Amino acid sequence: MPHSAHSSSPSPSQDSQEEGFASLPPFPSTVPTAPLFRISLAKLTSQDEAEQERCWQACRELGFFYLDLRGCTPGCALLSDADALFELMRVFYALPVGEKVKYDFKKEGSYFGYKGYGEGIVDASGGRDRNEFYNVSKDDVLGVSARLPAPACLSGRKERALCKAFIEESHAVCSTVMELLSTRLPLREEARNQGALGPLHRLQAPSGDQIRFVRAPPQEKRSQGVALGEHTDFGSVTLLFNRLGGLQVRLPPSMDPVAPATDGMSETEQTLCQDGWCYVRPLRGHAIVNLGDALVKFSNGRVRSNIHRVVAPPGRQGEEERWSLVYFCRPGDEVVLRSLVGDGDAAGGEEGEDVTAKEWILRRALGRREVGGWEKSGGTEEGSMRAGGMRG
Ligand SMILES: O=C(O)CCC(=O)C(=O)O
Ligand SMILES: [Fe+2]
């Protein structure tokens, strides 16, 4: 059954509780969008079997879905802390660049802290990104590692408590998804006896888990393009909070986008929607969840880590500054990225390569910040398009 037949494709008239964010122009009805399943966290945590099945299907077929966080206490707490972090991120980004660059730790070999505008490489020809990042380390906030230098606006007790709550709530949601995957994957007995995916992602174990604040200023109309280059995420589960469009996924050939309700796509948007690319419509009350390369490795290609990128938001949204908030859940630093299922180690990684999560993340994250680093920082992008995540 095609993916889109299952998902109630979000359209503007469907639910005023879900469409649009205060004071921002609406997401336009003129562009093709991704047919993402909407999965309810409340149903998942109450072990609703039909919901679990849909979530498993979404993980295999596209590796992207909406997670409705409404209707349960942990989900509502996460939504409210995400809102508070949007406010905090504004305070941080208002700092002068000279202050923000003090927290760029690339030279120390760390991917936490600040990445300035244009400091990342978005394609093989060395094109520059069009956004700023700030990465907050889970280990720093939870006291698992030493504290990194941070600006005063992020260092107060209240702000750190907010980050801590957001990390714990996000990690719990990611764990719910991984518990489901643990029950569905044909794991080797040894892996199952050791507790499956959960113990590889312990909150208290040193890891590359992080919060990311993203800011992308409006782009020049004439040169609107890619703000964050196409990539797969290199961790296990990513939670994304988007208010403006701009996130795009590249659908596998077997999947069709939801067609626009009305005409009027700009030329730039048409160009940005070639080759299977389409937009992800942000929905209020929902996070966008996607799976990363580590889960492709653990599952030997049975779930999908799909290519995505960020371009200028469509329609009138392109005139606004784009903010987004991300939580990356990653395996513990010492975890070796290899298949946990019964059929060897063939897909989703270079054969014979025993790499730990920490080595893999450093290679990928810092590679994207060097000229000429694009190819060597590659993940499972090729594989994810090729295998289609459909290996049974
Ligand atoms: O900003 C977004 O919507 C997506 C960001 C993203 O894909 C990433 O930071 O890995
Ligand atoms: Fe990403």
TrEMBL record:
* Keywords, sorted A to Z: Iron, Metal-binding, Oxidoreductase
Q: Compositional bias of type Low complexity: which residue ranges?
A: 1-13
Task: Enumerate the residue ranges of region (Disordered).
Answer: 1-25, 373-392
Molecular function GO labels: metal ion binding; oxidoreductase activity
Top-rank taxon of the source lineage equals: Eukaryota
* SUPFAM superfamilies in alphabetical order: Clavaminate synthase-like
* Gene Ontology biological process: small molecule biosynthetic process
Domain Fe2OG dioxygenase: from-to ranges: 207-331
Family as reported in the entry's similarity comment: Belongs to the iron/ascorbate-dependent oxidoreductase family.
Protein name as catalogued: Fe2OG dioxygenase domain-containing protein
